Automatic annotation (TrEMBL):
Region Disordered: start-end pairs: 64-105
Biased composition (Acidic residues): 66-105
Top-level division of the source organism's lineage: Bacteria
Name under which the protein is recorded: DNA primase
Length: 105
């Protein structure tokens, strides 16, 4: 594939506009116009990402999910670990506040 990154970017922007219009006019997830716009957006993004990589050896920092609900949810376990760390930090902040309340009078 030898696509010009600039023209692929223009096609991606146009696909984003079409997707926005379809989303704004949509009456639900099963809307055929929204599904078509989503497929076009995914294709335009892939084309742009490939063209950018071919031309400059750089990839976009974005990932397109394919929407398969049958995928294993193990990938999301890592996010639970992050939530646990946030909870621990919040507890430390709360303890610090309690210690300071009696000293300020």
């Amino acid at each position: 594939m030898n696509t010009d990154p600039r023209s692929a970017l223009a096609a991606l922007i146009a696909a984003l506009e079409r997707h926005y219009e379809a989303a704004a006019a949509s009456r639900g997830d099963d809307d055929p116009a929204l599904e078509a716009a989503t497929e076009q957006l995914t294709s335009a993004f892939d084309t742009y990402d490939d063209a950018l990589f071919e031309a400059y050896d750089i990839a976009t920092p974005l990932i397109v999910f394919d929407g398969d609900e049958d995928d294993d949810d193990d990938d999301f376990d890592d996010f639970e670990d992050l939530d646990d760390l946030d909870d621990e930090d919040d507890e430390d902040d709360f303890d610090d506040e309690e210690e300071g309340d009696g000293d300020e009078r």
